[in-house]
Specification:
Elements: H1 12-29, H2 38-48, E1 54-58, E2 61-65, H3 70-86, E3 90-93, E4 97-101, E5 106-109, E6 113-117, E7 127-128, E8 135-139, H4 145-158, E9 163-168, E10 173-181, E11 184-192, E12 196-199, E13 205-208
Parallel strand pairs: 4-7, 8-9
Antiparallel strand pairs: 1-2, 3-6, 4-5, 6-8, 9-10, 10-11, 12-13
Length: 212
Amino acid sequence: MAEPVPEYESTSAESDQWAHRAALLAELAGFSLPAPSVDAAFEVFSAAAPQGWRVELVEGEIHVTPPANGEHEEMVSELSGQARDHRRDLARYTGIGLRVPGASGSGRVIPDLVLAPRGSFADRQEWHDPSPVLLAAEVTSVSMAANDRVRKIRGYARAGIPVYVVVDREAAHIVVCTRPSGDDYRQKTTYKMGDPVPLPAPVGFTIDSGEL
């Protein structure tokens, strides 16, 4: 099994930012306001998060994560580059916000990589309809691996995204999920890191995982 990847450590400046924002939220909490909905709380966290931090709403829970470490970003970059080499007709999106069906209401997620026809998200919206997406991919981090392995599968399946790829750094394997149906994917195929990873239609190319 791969060695655990060291967690990102925030700087003192970032910690001060969070402390200041937390103090403001605590001050606001002293007023007689109605209890906020999850969506309202999500908007507050999104507005308060420092630049580069990721705020997602997954299965009714808000998750805030710091910028990824270098190994994570190298893997995402390599995946994106291989997609470019094989499917120049598709656009590659890193950091695009998607609205996916949640356990109740709408979830909001930011996949590490999305493949979709060019021009699919040519608007000024922050969160997008996932219907054009052909592939969503996540590279796991220690703190968010459970989301990538389990919870996000449900949202991506409900959204009808044809192919979901999980690059599991901690387990040293890659899972390709296909044939979405209801809350899950009917087919999940696991490949050892280093093996060729074929992606079925509508993606239709093979990942060279030895380069990740």
